[in-house]
Amino acid sequence: MRYLVPIAMCAILSCATAFPSVADESVTTQSLLREMTDRDRVAHYPQHDFRLKQASSYNRASKTPDDPKGWFDNFDRSTNDTHKNYVRVEENDGRKEYVVMEDEGAGAITRFWVPWKNQLKPGSDMVIRFYLDGSSEPVIEGNMFELFQGKGLIPFPLAHESLRSAVSFFPIPYAKNCKVTMSDHPFFFQFTYREYDEDVAVKTFSMEDFTAAKPLIDTTCQKLLNPNASAAGEVVNMKETIGGGNEQSVSLPAREAAITSLSLKLGSYEDPNVTRHVVLKISFDDKETVWCPIGDFFGSGIGLNPLQGWYRTVNADGTMTCRWVMPYKNNAKISVVNLGDVPVSVDFSATIGDWKWDSRSMYFHAGWRGQYPVPTRPYSDWNYVTLQGRGVYVGDTLTIMNPVERWWGEGDEKIFVDGESFPSIFGTGTEDYYAYSWGGRSTDFYEHPFHGQPFSHKYNKLNRKTGNEKNTQGFSTETRTRALDTMPFGSSLKLDMEVWSWTDCDMGYGVGTYWYGFADTTSNRKPEPVEALNVPPLPDMSAAESAAKTSPKAASNAADFKGAVECEKMEVVSKSGKVVLKPQNLRKLKLKGSWNLDTHVLFKDAQVGDVVELRIPASSPSAQKLVLHATKSYDFGILRLSVNGKPVAADVDLYAAKPVPSETIELGTSDPVKSSYVLRVELVGKNPQSKGAFFGLDCVTLSPAQ
């Protein structure tokens, strides 16, 4: 067996009796398409047991949390031969192919994600090939964006052009093995797939099956785009005004049944914090399994942010609806809690349908965790949820507060299942987990049946982004629900997300998590009323908005040079190779942009591997915040930086089509050593478009640590 999950034989026999059609059915493209839109099925532990795995371009230096430098290394891509974030390179029919996923045994690809290679230029020239069951000929071959962004082979929404990404949820099953290759260095990628137990019969995908399944494909697409729950059942209503610190409850019919739809509307959303202060509680068979603020439960985040997905809809009129199927055996109770001080009006309804409880039926759970402040240094993993027992993880909604303009979402998801020592799902960035990319630029609303960004910076469905500014300050809400990419677990599941920002600052985190479990399945998520009231304060964004109106370019590139130390004034502690330091007056070169004193130092004749160390005099005996200002150009390389021996950020690519000032490069907060800081600059590579590997440094600004 590929893995072991203890299940009593009587339970297996009971399941086979209760679900003969499922037990006898082999896994096929068509069975997976039917499963994708079967909400009842998600509430049952899978008859065809599997574990979800992921092949991604995560940094292979990340091996163990005992080595923090490697564990939080975030160079999660491959752009040249020095980067090895893939399986291997093969020669096929005289062409080079990069293997990005390989799995032995029965399985099915259920999701894959790839980003634009250039944040301002859509698409890719990459050819992707899928080889199944050892065949030397690919069953699918073509441009990966043309095939999988909803306008080619796979229709929308089974494939989707997300924000600067292509995402596919079309199932590709295989009986023996699967190999996926790309025609060039594969940049970023994620392939999520099921590994079935060895006794599961799987029919391998073929184009003949695809053609035969077209009517079902069309039906599936229409269902996903019109996500109505069954109207059959008994409706339970509650319409109350709930005072501050109070709650109101309603009991559901006492019998075997299931909630099939649940809707809630508040009288006012004028105070956006109301979606965090009003909490939904549900108990099934005398056990509370749901405690979650309504914004995080329905996917709206802080405030009213409309969204339509397969499991949840938030309308502009304030009606929030979920369509998770929530079964119970004997009794259930729904409560709405007002943690705030001001009374709130609540209009609530639930539809209760029939359900036959069996040994695979599970209880629905929704938990929540909030924390403010969350420091971004040192880098850390922030736990969404840890589960013990047996169940299926089905989704989450993350709302963060970012106090600065620079991008916050480089952190990777790390998901450990059934006691793994290394996560079987290791991602490439928080935005990638939520199916978009280039997050610093992608501050806009988007939605899809299984994922979305209901709010970012100041934009939502009712206020779309019209410019191209890079500003991720303020709240962002990301949500993801799972269908074929649900995560079954037999004994445990732990989901962590890296806190990995480009800036040393304090952020706010709040996450709603959703899963199904049996009566003895437990979670580390408990009610957190104090944190639900601790809504992170928004930063003052007026200055950035004023600068953007005056000059959009200035808003993203203008630098504050207060407390600057010019690089040409720094002592050179050491340098390797034949590196030559040459001060340049950039005004005389008639370059556009802002540099301190209109100068920088050009580091000429540098080769990959060269290191330069510069001593920066401290302006205070106490800890200071250091920010580097540099230059980008057509022949500049990629730098790795540290201060006083401490790595400070991801590698910095200084390539640009023409010379421009870089964005500010946060070096973190450090205590001086012997009244100074030593900045170590290592040249580690170059952009494929760069004509060289020089680099130019302007200055370092020092300011008091906050």
UniProtKB/TrEMBL annotation:
Domain of life: Bacteria
Keywords of this entry: Signal
Entry annotated with the keyword Signal: yes
Sections of the chain in a coiled coil: none
Composition-biased stretches (Basic and acidic residues): 63-76
Transmembrane regions listed in the UniProt entry: none
Signal peptide range in chain numbering: 1-23
Region (Disordered): 56-76
Any Pfam family: DUF2961
Keyword Signal annotated: yes
Entry protein name: DUF2961 domain-containing protein
Taxonomic placement: Bacteria, Pseudomonadati, Planctomycetota, Planctomycetia, Pirellulales
